[in-house]
Design a protein that fits this description.
This protein has 139 residues and is mainly beta. Helix content is 12%, strand content 36%. Strands 1-2-4-5-6-3 form a 6-stranded antiparallel beta sheet, covered by helices on one side. It is globular.
Length: 139
């Protein structure tokens, strides 16, 4: 099963991207997280940051290159719940690629309230490393 956690790209340039994910009560993974108090699971916040970072890092990249996968997560901190009706606004800033093709990304996930205002408290922050997948040749 694939979850697309980027509904739209709000802004993008060479080294940064801002995306949005609208959290709906109809999301399958909210049914059990938590019963009576549905919120976006933390792992889905992390995945939204990875997907935004990957979109940024893959812009202009050789399509024949191995796909980028999550290589490391550092300093990940969660700050607040994201209930249905809110939106997750993800901002990523990328450093230039390393010699091995890996890319360090600073990511922040903020919460847009149903009234359109931004919460003072961050949903999540952390540093990610995306690296080329290690693909084995057949045989």
């Amino acid at each position: 099963m694939h979850f697309d956690l980027v509904d739209a790209v709000l802004q993008q340039d060479e080294s940064s991207i801002t995306t949005i994910k609208h959290v709906s009560g109809a999301e399958e993974y909210l049914r059990d997280h938590f019963a009576g108090f549905p919120v976006l699971p933390g792992v889905m916040m992390l995945e939204a940051m990875v997907q935004a970072g990957r979109r940024l890092a893959e812009t202009g990249r050789d399509p024949a290159a191995p796909p980028l996968v999550l290589g490391a997560v550092r300093g990940l901190k969660y700050g607040r719940f994201v209930p249905p009706g809110c939106s997750l606004v993800v901002r990523c800033e990328a450093a230039p690629p390393d010699e091995d093709g890996s890319i360090d990304i600073r990511a922040t996930a903020e919460v847009r309230e149903p009234d359109g205002s931004m919460s003072d408290q961050k949903a999540a922050t952390g540093r990610l490393t995306l690296r080329p997948a290690r693909v084995r040749a057949p045989g």
